[in-house]
Specification:
The protein has about 260 residues and is of the alpha+beta class. It has 2 domains: about 130 residues, Diaminopimelate Epimerase, Chain A, domain 1 (Roll), CATH 3.10.310; about 120 residues, Diaminopimelate Epimerase, Chain A, domain 1, CATH 3.10.310.10. It has 6 helices and 18 strands. The chain has an 18-stranded mixed beta sheet that branches. The longest helix has 14 residues. Keywords: Isomerase.
């Protein structure tokens, strides 16, 4: 069996930036075990698989360790592959996922994704969190999926050197660290060691948590964010109440064939 494979740098306008995702279009679902093995072999933060179901696409995402219920950059990469390589021409891509129905539209070379807005509750900043991050945040929150640490300035976020063993023991899937930005409205870094991703380069789904928070904190609904990983990536954000929009570009790094 041969499967097409596309590796795409999402939230990037040139290769070696943004967040790399593998995209594998399918005609029918493979077994969960086989998709997990392919994702582990790719060894990227996410591998996306999709199949067409009439007017929409079913989409699933796997890290090297397990399946996840929402992923931003691999959704962007999947839409990019449909438009760039698979002759998709409709104005909007509709994805059915374990995280709900998602919509992606394209304007010129920018892809805009409609995602859920996730709420937060403030929790106490503990010594356990400070030790894991190597710095004490000003505020700490627990979201619907992720924990979020808020720092006073961008330099603190950029200078973090976490203990990933300790981070993997914290609550939530992702450990989001964020602060107001200098050239951007806010900056962030996201750590997901429990999923085999010490630091995720650009995490679209983390903005489901950050966008509502910063919209309220900054008093604005349109924002530009930057994820300050070693690769880095810029995200245009819009807060819509119970939904958000996050947008960015994508570029092709590789096309290939998986032989099984």
């Amino acid at each position: 069996m041969e499967l097409d494979l596309y590796q795409v740098d999402a939230f990037a306008d040139e290769v070696f930036n943004g967040n790399p995702a593998a995209v594998v279009p399918l005609y029918e679902w493979l077994s969960d075990e086989l998709m997990q093995k392919i994702a582990a072999e790719n060894n990227l933060s996410e591998t996306a698989f999709f199949i067409r179901k009439g007017e929409y696409f079913e989409l699933r995402w796997f890290t090297a360790e397990s399946e996840v219920d929402l992923c931003g950059h691999a959704t962007l990469a999947s839409a990019y592959v449909l438009y760039e390589f698979l002759e998709y021409t409709d104005p909007v891509v509709v994805f059915e996922t374990k995280g709900g129905r998602l919509f992606v539209d394209r304007e010129a070379d920018t892809y805009s994704m409609d995602f859920p807005a996730w709420g937060l509750r403030e929790i106490q900043v503990t010594e356990r969190v400070s030790q894991a991050l190597g710095a004490r945040p000003a505020e700490l929150f627990m979201g619907e999926r992720d924990m979020m640490a808020v720092f006073e300035n961008e330099d603190e976020v950029r200078g973090l050197s976490p203990d990933f063993r300790l981070v993997s023991q914290l609550d939530g899937m992702c450990m989001i660290c964020t602060a107001p930005g200098l050239d951007y409205d806010f900056v962030s870094r996201t750590f997901v060691p429990e999923q085999g991703i010490p630091e995720d380069p650009v995490t679209g789904s983390a903005h489901c948590t950050m966008v509502p928070f910063w919209a309220d904190r900054l008093g604005k609904t349109l924002m530009r964010a930057y994820q300050a990983s070693s690769r880095g990536g810029a995200i245009d954000c819009e807060y819509l109440g119970d939904r958000i929009k996050i947008a960015g570009k994508a570029v092709t790094y590789m096309k290939g064939i998986i032989t099984l």
